[in-house]
UniProtKB/TrEMBL annotation:
<feature type="region of interest" description="Disordered">
    <location>
        <begin position="315"/>
        <end position="344"/>
    </location>
</feature>
<protein>
    <submittedName>
        <fullName>mRNA 3-end processing factor</fullName>
    </submittedName>
</protein>
<dbReference type="InterPro" id="IPR050698">
    <property type="entry name" value="MBL"/>
</dbReference>
<dbReference type="InterPro" id="IPR026360">
    <property type="entry name" value="Xnuc_lig_assoc"/>
</dbReference>
<dbReference type="GO" id="GO:0004521">
    <property type="term" value="F:RNA endonuclease activity"/>
</dbReference>
<dbReference type="InterPro" id="IPR036866">
    <property type="entry name" value="RibonucZ/Hydroxyglut_hydro"/>
</dbReference>
<feature type="compositionally biased region" description="Basic and acidic residues">
    <location>
        <begin position="333"/>
        <end position="344"/>
    </location>
</feature>
Length: 344
């Protein structure tokens, strides 16, 4: 094995680097810019080039960054490292390691299918595949994007006609921009929560087309919000920040909305099933396409997925050490929004 599992995360002893470490280390290879993968405080970071603006937005300036284009490789102590699109958010990458003909792939977070805000996932043939299983239960099956997008725009149109302002919740980096890309700008103006605006600016700086948005905080005094669409982080729900919008209709966009009860716990008016992670069928499809000899399952329903794969005749095991911390951003836990995202 090129990789080993340690309490700090996946480690390549030969190359002396960690992949998405959960503590500051000397050298971190980072799959994408979500805070549960890109930890603050490492000395050196190696990541995919399209994630540069997002990573620099979130990291300390004195860290040393190195970026590789997708498909480009470098060698550290004989281990070839390259990044390949993961389809999760802008710049998200699968990390491919090769040493003496053996190939190991860490998928990071990923999804299949097209997303207008990032490059699509590509299968990589490998000996070992490390996969997340955030939504690794058969109950999780996503609808095609055009169906969800149409439903969101329909909700916006109806709310506008009823004289209401829409507030749509999605995580600040990735989800929000995917939602923005699907909005029909002919319906009304689009406003953004501060954290969403910041993330969206990083997307624009990276060359991704985004619709025109106005930061909520830039509007002073009396303003008629009716007919507008506010894209906000989930932690803004139910806070005093919401009061200014007047009559609102609220909605949450998350993979967890597929489960009965999640929307009620959120106490939003609508729930749209939108996830940037693989659902059950695409997880199985991805493993089939990469055809690994071994699968390490992490992040989520790893025991269920590993057991299922073993029943299917694959060598799969649960990667214990990478159990998620409580404060990650994109685990999308409906009960526990990220406090850090609340706008002052
Ligand atoms: Zn992520
Ligand atoms: Zn994650």
């Amino acid at each position: 094995m090129i990789l080993q599992s340690t309490p700090t995360g996946l480690y390549c002893a030969r190359g002396g680097f960690y992949i998405d470490p959960n503590r500051p280390v000397d050298r971190a290879v980072v799959s994408h810019a979500h805070t549960d993968h890109a930890r603050w405080g490492c000395r050196r970071y190696l990541s995919a080039k399209p994630s540069e603006h997002l990573l620099r937005m979130r990291m300390n300036d004195d860290a040393e960054f190195e970026f590789l284009n997708y498909g480009e490789s470098i060698s550290i102590a004989g281990v070839n490292i390259s990044f390949h699109p993961a389809g999760h958010i802008l710049g998200s990458a699968q990390v491919r390691l090769e040493y003496r003909g053996r190939v190991e792939v860490v998928t990071g977070d990923y999804k299949l299918g097209d997303d207008p805000t990032c490059e699509s996932w590509q299968p990589i043939r490998c000996h070992l595949m490390v996969t997340e299983s955030t939504f690794g239960l058969p109950v999780y099956r996503w609808q095609p994007d055009e169906v969800t997008t149409a439903a969101i725009n329909q909700w916006w149109r109806e709310s506008r006609d009823a004289g209401k302002c829409c507030v749509l919740y999605g995580y600040a980096v990735g989800k929000s921009q995917r939602l923005l890309a699907g909005l029909d700008t002919s319906i009304g103006p689009i406003y953004t929560h501060g954290a969403v605006e910041k993330g969206t600016q990083a997307y624009r700086d990276s060359g991704v087309a985004m619709p025109e948005t106005t930061h909520v905080g830039s509007i002073d005094g009396k303003h008629d919000w009716s007919g507008g669409m506010v894209v906000a982080v989930p932690s803004a729900h139910g806070t005093p920040w919401m009061r200014k919008f007047g009559r609102v209709s609220t909605a949450m966009a998350s993979g967890w909305m597929a489960v009965r009860g999640a929307r009620r716990r959120r106490s939003v008016d609508r729930g749209f099933i939108v996830s940037d992670h693989v659902d059950w069928p695409s997880l199985m499809q991805a493993i089939e396409a990469c055809d690994p000899e071994n699968v390490w399952v992490t992040h989520g329903y790893s025991a269920v997925v590993a057991r299922y794969l073993n029943e299917q005749g694959r060598q799969a095991e649960v990667l214990e050490s990478s159990t998620r911390s409580d404060n990650e951003e994109d685990a999308e836990t409906p009960e526990r929004p990220a406090e850090s995202e609340t706008e002052a």
